[in-house]
């Protein structure tokens, strides 16, 4: 048989250009996989710490869209890779069963047959299966890479607050025999302080803190406090010191740091005090039994605090129009300046407008002062406490102290208290703040609150572990699909797995019999007659269409049928030719 360089039509075979033989759909699908992976990583990355409200489309929705697009591109690229592998292995002489398993690429139970069908089919099946798995895993991993969390976000915030910087003499009371007699306003603030009535600012923009919590400092009338602590040891199981204070709170006025008696005895005009130069202050005395040892020796802790009228920076929190003081910071407030009023001196005549400290002393005496003493009862071998009827000692007494445990040697004398000093200090600071707040509202005295606004927001949080795993899975699936497409440039023309294209070489009963015997494809082609294949005149390989005598009768018993068969030759991998 003579070799021919012409097709069945008598014309030379037309060579395909590289542009025409390039599997653009597969390559563009690979590019789409890369783009989807990059966009997914960018979405997850830039959404980190972003507020949920700032995204009109949630990252999870975008990731779902990208996953769907990636799956479509993956399917297209994988299909191209299977086509390339099918025709490359067909040119090498793969058996029909191997080609079948390459076409099937391990789907379903076909994987088990592919593992036994030879290295080519096994390689394709394993690569495709692993690509499926990694591509599938990338979706859930991407979804897990971003989540929502609750955070408190802060930003600078400046508000206004009606707050007096100075409480004038007489606003709280009037002097009578060296003691302030309280007015209605002072009593009201004492009651509201006792009841912990809510403090409010104007419910208007610039004053109220809407949709969040504002906290900062504001200057206003207050107290400067200087405190010191001493201790004293006393024997509790003794009658010699019955009546000794074990829990006490009281206050006294000072002039130049020295206590003076109240009421002051003098003519009110001619005395040793000089209003122009003397400075009045208030001293708070707080005592409590803090501990006891096995010998019933108790430690008395004595706190002494001296107060002066001052301008201080209050730590405030504003939610909507409600104001609260940050109690844990009240005893560490910054003091801007201090003032002194001559009306707090003992020389103030009756009927004089009372200063802040004198009014504060009266408030302490009426609401917090107590003198609780101990009493040792030898007959009962026990120590008890009693006093002036104030309930404050009961609020700080420690009935569950280990000293009270059954069998403890200190059980008979275990009178101990928590320190009330912090509580009293906070109460005094809060009382003065309430007074300044009311006075500021009365006279429209406005201060600036320099602080920050805290808002509870939902934000996106990125988990780098899941993001890294998702990117790794996408890279693996991309690499596997690209590996399956490797060698597409060796194919001389665009190819598919269409039955119209693959069935041409398998027509005829004799061919089907060879397939049943699992004969290599090259041997099947050798049984066909007048097949023209080869690389003649083509540097890059070619595909020729030849007439093949199948030996089958024509229609209505006519002549035998010639079938056009496409024989593919791949560059560098040999050709199939008839014998």
Automatic annotation (TrEMBL):
InterPro entries, alphabetized: DUF3176
Annotated transmembrane regions: 24-48, 60-84, 466-489
Organism: Echria macrotheca
UniProt entry tagged with the keyword Membrane: yes
Location of the region described as Disordered in the Swiss-Prot/TrEMBL record: 536-559
Protein name from the UniProt record: Uncharacterized protein
Keywords tagged on the record: Membrane, Transmembrane, Transmembrane helix
Stretches with biased composition (Polar residues): 539-549
């Amino acid at each position: 048989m003579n070799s021919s360089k012409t097709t069945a039509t008598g014309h030379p075979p037309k060579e395909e250009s590289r542009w025409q033989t390039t599997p653009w759909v597969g390559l563009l699908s690979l590019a789409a996989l890369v783009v989807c992976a990059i966009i997914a990583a960018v979405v997850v990355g830039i959404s980190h710490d972003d507020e949920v409200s700032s995204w009109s489309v949630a990252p999870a929705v975008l990731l779902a869209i990208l996953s769907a697009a990636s799956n479509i591109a993956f399917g297209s690229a994988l299909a191209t890779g299977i086509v390339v592998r099918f025709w490359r292995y067909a040119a090498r002489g793969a058996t029909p069963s191997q080609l079948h398993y390459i076409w099937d690429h391990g789907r379903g139970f076909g994987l088990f047959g592919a593992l036994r069908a030879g290295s080519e089919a096994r390689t394709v099946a394993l690569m495709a299966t692993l690509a499926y798995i990694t591509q599938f895993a990338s979706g859930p991993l991407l979804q897990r890479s971003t989540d929502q969390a609750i955070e408190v976000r802060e930003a600078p915030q400046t508000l206004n607050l009606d707050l007096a910087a100075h409480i004038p003499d007489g606003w709280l009371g009037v002097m009578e025999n060296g003691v302030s007699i309280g007015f209605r306003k002072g009593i009201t603030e004492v009651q509201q302080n006792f009841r912990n009535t809510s403090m409010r600012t104007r419910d208007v923009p610039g004053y109220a803190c809407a949709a969040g919590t504002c906290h900062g400092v504001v200057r206003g009338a207050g107290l400067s406090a200087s405190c010191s602590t001493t201790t004293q040891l006393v024997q509790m199981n003794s009658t010699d010191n019955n009546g000794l204070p074990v829990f006490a709170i009281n206050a006294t006025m000072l002039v130049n740091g020295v206590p003076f008696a109240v009421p002051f005895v003098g003519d009110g005009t001619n005395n040793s005090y000089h209003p122009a130069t003397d400075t009045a202050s208030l001293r708070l005395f707080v005592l409590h039994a803090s501990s006891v040892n096995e010998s019933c020796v108790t430690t008395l802790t004595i706190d002494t605090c001296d107060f002066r009228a001052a301008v201080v920076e209050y730590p405030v929190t504003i939610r909507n129009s409600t104001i609260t003081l940050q109690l844990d910071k009240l005893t560490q407030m910054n003091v801007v300046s201090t003032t002194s009023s001559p009306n707090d001196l003992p020389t103030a005549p009756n009927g004089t407008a009372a200063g802040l400290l004198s009014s504060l002393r009266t408030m302490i005496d009426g609401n917090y002062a107590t003198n609780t003493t101990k009493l040792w009862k030898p007959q009962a071998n026990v120590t008890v406490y009693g006093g002036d009827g104030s309930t404050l000692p009961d609020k700080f007494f420690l009935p569950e102290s280990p000293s009270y445990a059954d069998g403890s040697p200190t059980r008979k004398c275990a009178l101990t208290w928590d320190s009330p000093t912090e509580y009293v200090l906070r109460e005094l600071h809060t009382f003065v703040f309430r007074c300044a707040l009311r006075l500021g509202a009365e006279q429209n005295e406005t201060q600036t609150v320099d602080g920050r606004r805290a808002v509870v927001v939902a934000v996106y949080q990125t988990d780098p572990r899941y993001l890294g795993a998702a990117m790794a899975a996408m890279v693996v699936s991309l690499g596997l699909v690209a590996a399956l497409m490797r060698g597409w440039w060796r194919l001389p023309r665009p190819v598919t797995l269409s039955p119209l294209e693959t069935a041409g070489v398998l027509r005829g009963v004799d061919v089907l019999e060879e397939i049943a015997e699992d004969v290599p494809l090259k041997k099947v082609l050798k049984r066909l007659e007048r097949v023209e294949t080869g690389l003649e005149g083509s540097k890059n390989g070619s595909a020729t269409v030849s007439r093949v005598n199948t030996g089958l009768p024509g229609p209505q018993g006519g002549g035998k049928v010639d079938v056009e068969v496409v024989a593919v030759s791949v560059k560098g991998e040999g050709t199939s030719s008839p014998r």
